[in-house]
């Protein structure tokens, strides 16, 4: 058995946090205010670089650093057109933790680590996890099919993916996909994960810059209203916006056998911003996880972190998972 399995304290030391909880770096749904609020509560806040121009990312990083002296992270999709400029910014600003996703980490991991950065890669299979470890990453995020936003084509659920990855690698594994409260944290630890990453849950917080109309649609969402779509272009889990919305347009095109070019033309440009940041529920992309059906409140991000820790502790005191502790619990 690896020493890293079920080791939340070890992950907290690696990240520089009190709690093994990570707010995912989502496109159009992260910013300095959210990152700082999460960090002050003892978890790891993350900026999503995928929806930022290089100068915007630098500004957001500096906003975080001006308000918070603790740990924070940046997520960089490796298929982003300006990835080289982003990497320069990360090194120059001495970002302590970087999550890479949507591509191979081989090219950039050594570059980032030489600057003193902890590097974590998001994977959707045990094979990709092994390749990421070979590239030198410090940890991996095992993100299941339930997750929102851009997702793996394998359609492996979190419950299956996490133990597969835990058994395949000897670095800390962070579970993601469908996690949102103390119960789901406990389940992730039971599968061997050392921590959890949550995106959709942190969209529904008061500091998140997502549009109020998008948040309201999430609050109204019911089970079965999200779907993994556009797999021939770039897989993304979307929430239905309404009758005749972009969601319905994609569904109809895919059912009619549209090819990659036709789907790319339908997708066009700017739909994610249009949906999540500008609140266009009909023509925008509404990226969110299956767990949206369970989200109907809008707490402060710091309050959310503290609530999850309390919920987890309540389960733990019932001996549902004896021994699954981390030092930060004592400070609750």
What does the model show?
It is a single chain. The protein has 332 residues and is of the alpha/beta class. It folds into 2 domains: 8-207 and 300-331, Aldolase class I (TIM Barrel), CATH 3.20.20.70; 212-292, no CATH class. Helices cover 39% and strands 14% of the residues. The chain is built from 14 helices and 11 strands. The chain has an 8-stranded parallel β-sheet. β3, α4 and β4 form a beta-alpha-beta unit. The longest helix has 17 residues, at 301-317. The two termini are 30 Å apart.
Structure summarized in a few sentences:
Helices cover 39% and strands 14% of the residues. The protein has helices at 8-15, 32-40, 54-67, 83-92, 109-114, 126-134, 158-168, 182-190, 200-203, 212-220, 246-255, 260-267, 271-277, 301-317, and strands spanning 21-23, 46-48, 73-77, 97-101, 118-123, 139-143, 149-150, 173-176, 195-198, 226-229, 236-239.
CATH superfamily of the largest domain: Aldolase class I
CATH topology-level fold name of the largest domain: TIM Barrel
CATH class of the largest domain: Alpha Beta
Task: Give the CA-based shape.
Answer: globular
Largest sheet: 8 strands, parallel
Helix content: 25-40%
CATH architecture of the largest domain: Alpha-Beta Barrel
> How much is the radius of gyration in Å?
19 Å
List segments where confidence is low: pLDDT < 50 over at least 5 consecutive residues: none
The strands making up the biggest β-sheet line up spatially as 1-9-8-6-5-4-3-2
Q: Count every helix, treating DSSP H or I runs of 4 or more residues as helices.
A: 14
Structural class: alpha/beta
Give the integer mean of the pLDDT values: 92
User: What is the number of domains?
Assistant: 2
Q: Give the termini distance in whole angstroms.
A: 30 Å
| Total strands | 11
- Oligomer description: single chain
